Amino acid sequence: MNRVKISTRGPEFSRLIYGTWRLLDTKPTAQEINRRLHACLELGITTLDTAEVYGTYGVEALLGEALVLTPGLRDKFEIVTKAGICFPHAQRHEWQIAHYNATGANLVQSLEKSLRLLRTDRIELFLVHRPDWLTRADDTAAGLHELLRSGKIKSAGVSNYTVSQFDLLNSLMEQPLATNQLEFHLLHHEPMHDGTFHQCEKSGVRPMAWSPLAGGRLFAPENPAAQRLAAAAKKLAGRYSGATLEQLAYAWIMAHPSRPLPVIGTNKLERIQSAAKADEIVMERQDWFTLWEAAQGRRIP
Ligand SMILES: NC(=O)c1ccc[n+]([C@@H]2O[C@H](COP(=O)([O-])OP(=O)(O)OC[C@H]3O[C@@H](n4cnc5c(N)ncnc54)[C@H](OP(=O)(O)O)[C@@H]3O)[C@@H](O)[C@H]2O)c1
Fold it and tell me: Is the pLDDT of residue 91 over 90?
């Protein structure tokens, strides 16, 4: 697996990142997750993406449990976590409605909780999960600076930020933002057109691409775009050593000039193994447009 720097001053990551949003869906034990983490390492996938809110605040604790089952395992990974989404749940009765909170104070408090749950003393990359419309950027920046100065986080970034939101926060940062994690896949092309990917390219940061298989919708038999993509992938497979639609979908993302890092979300080991092979695919220009056309159901303008 290739390794890349996410930004000039940011950490080095594996080109594919293992995402943990759905980790609790199959109700796994810590031992099972520990085995999955070892499998990721064998494939060269060393970067884990998580968030305080995942699994209704349950994923980080399970991940922490799984990591400490093998001494030294944590140090073999780079961990990305996020904060700023507040969902009402059993431990936070005062949150009566889902809301965002990217105040510096909330980010610091959340990150400290994440460190305890993940059983670690630092996070390689900490992201503001969603833009918070009610917080001044200098307040958010102050919290990130406090965490950077203390060494509790090695770098900071954002997720789901628009161009102007990224620009504003970045202009206040002592250490430039390391990424913008965005939704990008064959069924969602927005970052190519709304300026966010161009901004990443200009700022020297690689975006992270979430839901690279459209959360599984890429395979929904009732979805006409999925049907067209399945047919197109079948035709292209022979040119890429029998690559599957999944592998071609990851390669399609990685071929964009902003060089996004796909954050894969499957709970199945064989699908993680299959995803890792996508790192070897260099997609030809016309094949990229063939998949674009199949996804859109029309020719380029
Ligand atoms: N920053 C943000 O706001 C944000 C938002 C969403 C996600 N994320 C990150 O991105 C990661 C990935 O997101 P995601 O889970 O939506 O990724 P995804 O890879 O697009 O979707 C994963 C889903 O697709 C299913 N799937 C995979 N291959 C399939 C196939 N061949 N046929 C049918 N279903 C298939 C998986 O089921 P199986 O498990 O059965 O394979 C799983 O339910 C998350 O874990 C999280 O870390 C970030």
Answer: no
